[in-house]
Amino acid sequence: MRATLMYGAGDVRVEDVPDSVIKLPTDALVRVTASCICGSDLWPYGSMPPADAPARMGHEFVGVVEDTGAEVTTVTRGDLVVAPFAISDNACAFCRDGLHTSCAHPQANFWGSGSEDGGQAEAVRVPLADGTLVKLPVAPDSALMPSLLTLSDVLGTGHHAAVAGGVNERTSVTVIGDGAVGLLAVLSAKRLGAERIILMGRHQARTDFGREFGATDVVAARGEEGIARVRELTGGHGTRAVIEAVGHLTAYEQALGVVRRGGVISRVGVPQYEEAPVGFGSLFRHNLRLAGGPAPVRAYIEELMPDILDGTIEPGKVFDTTTDLDGVPAGYQAMADRKNLKVLIAP
Amino acid sequence: MRATLMYGAGDVRVEDVPDSVIKLPTDALVRVTASCICGSDLWPYGSMPPADAPARMGHEFVGVVEDTGAEVTTVTRGDLVVAPFAISDNACAFCRDGLHTSCAHPQANFWGSGSEDGGQAEAVRVPLADGTLVKLPVAPDSALMPSLLTLSDVLGTGHHAAVAGGVNERTSVTVIGDGAVGLLAVLSAKRLGAERIILMGRHQARTDFGREFGATDVVAARGEEGIARVRELTGGHGTRAVIEAVGHLTAYEQALGVVRRGGVISRVGVPQYEEAPVGFGSLFRHNLRLAGGPAPVRAYIEELMPDILDGTIEPGKVFDTTTDLDGVPAGYQAMADRKNLKVLIAP
């Protein structure tokens, strides 16, 4: 079968690999019908050392179950399923808390780590199939497929950002970042009733999407100028919730600048830094809180899917192009060049 | 009148200063009947550069109103009052949110900043008296006075630590630090119903106090050994809430080691660092949250005072000695040497 491998920064290839097969009685084999490239795939695409290569890529996919191990009970051959970006048993103490990304099962993992399969491929061996996979009540050629695919990561991540930021109908929120996660954080904040949503982003095509998803204000300026503009919009105070959907230290510093005293910075962009200011002069003085992390999207699928099925939300609009597997390397480059927002892959 | 001044590290003096007087119509003049030395006073006592000297000291006091400005309406001559460590108007948007330490009034401040008065003195000019002062329904010689004095800072700070840590009757909590704030964080967690309270501290006299206040377990070891011990006590997982009541980076790192995945680190020890690990490998990977800051003790007085008046809690037990103003310099040294837990001053 064919799969996507990353050999180093800027070097993505689609190659023949051994067919994925069931290895454990809790596995399922899924034939991928739709997957995509994630903003977080661009971090290694920008900096991966060749020593770590090759890595199997892709952690967001929908597909049809082709085979199941003897112990799998919740999905069966022929089911259309979505796979969250974290493998989990949906049963341990952390999963029961809704924190599937911290599942304690020995096989719990993120896709693409080590020798595991990745979703940017023809097929995937899915460990802990009962815990990981969720059935989709539509046909593989449903027009809803792009939106349902976002349940695997990007919608759930936007939703998590809003939940971790405490967003509700009394909240003003600033979203930093106009990538797919930032835009779906806007959609999620709107869905949770936020009264005001300020989107900070520089790419007008994307921020226009953001307005469509619910942004009430757009601030194109960054740094001190952007901070001043958000403060101007909010009576000088900033917003109670700030969603940081980028991952760079400059975005965190921007968040510190626009968060209201006593407010919360909710991070879902994977931090590209380890140390950051958190002392008296940054977080402590005004009781600012820091929240967020990898989204336990599995915990959110039951809540979010009905809104997709009935057309209340259309998160699939973040896909602005579709390619086959051959087009994946070009898709990485197009996203890195910001020519495409998010690439859908139909293998 | 006499007041406490700090001239530099290790150099505290009690000197004659000009009498405090009413300056603004919103001021009150308070004759101090009880004040104390705070753990946070020990930070400048350890490191204050002489260039910043002299600084008026003390931010926790109880006293009798001696005079009031023309616009003061809530307190009057002869009232016994307690002053929170932050001056606030109790009226702005932040005070209405219960965040009095971030009061937006131009006169809002912490005691002892700049040329302001301090509580370790015979008298204090209290700005924004209506917002800042709270009447105490007892006589100045009440046996409850040590406990009521803790409403000015240390009890409210322990309570804030527990509240910011989300402590309730389903919470296990680790408290790092056996100083007065740590011990009253134990008392506060117990008061809020925490099912398990692990106190990390090395001074047995203090941790014995902690047990009296509600600690179910004491861990004397620090660093990796202490972390391992807490994990052993909690099935390997750590606790959902961790209260960091020290302020050193090593205490923050210890908090990272004992917090459960998805849990919260609540800081009330003033951070003696600005940068700290908050990236993927520390906070982000497991959705750990960071909370806390200067406690808005004014917001908590109405809730906490009845429990002192009816004897439900006795936070005044943290005072293990009493001195007059002449004894203040020795009191600083005794606390720095950890010979005394907390020094009460009867001017």
Could you explain the architecture of this structure?
Two copies of one chain form a homodimer. Chain A is an alpha/beta fold. Chain A folds into two domains: 2-153 and 296-345, Quinone Oxidoreductase, Chain A, domain 1; 158-292, Rossmann fold, CATH 3.40.50.720. The first copy, chain A, contains twelve helices and 19 strands. In chain A, the strands form four sheets. In chain A, strands 3, 5, 6, 9, 10, 18 and 19 form a seven-stranded mixed sheet that branches. A six-stranded parallel sheet of chain A has the order 13-12-11-14-15-17, sandwiched between helices. A three-stranded antiparallel sheet of chain A has the order 2-1-4. In chain A, strand 1 (2-8) and strand 2 (11-16) form a beta hairpin. In chain A, helix 6 packs parallel to helix 7. The longest helix of chain A is centred in the middle third of the chain and has 12 residues, at 180-191. The first copy, chain A, starts with a strand and ends with a strand. Chains A and B meet through strand 15, strand 16, helix 10 and strand 17 of A and strand 15, strand 16, helix 10 and strand 17 of B. Chains A, B: Its cofactor is Zn(2+). Chains A, B: It comes from Streptomyces litchfieldiae. Chains A, B: Residues 180-292 form the Alcohol dehydrogenase-like C-terminal domain.
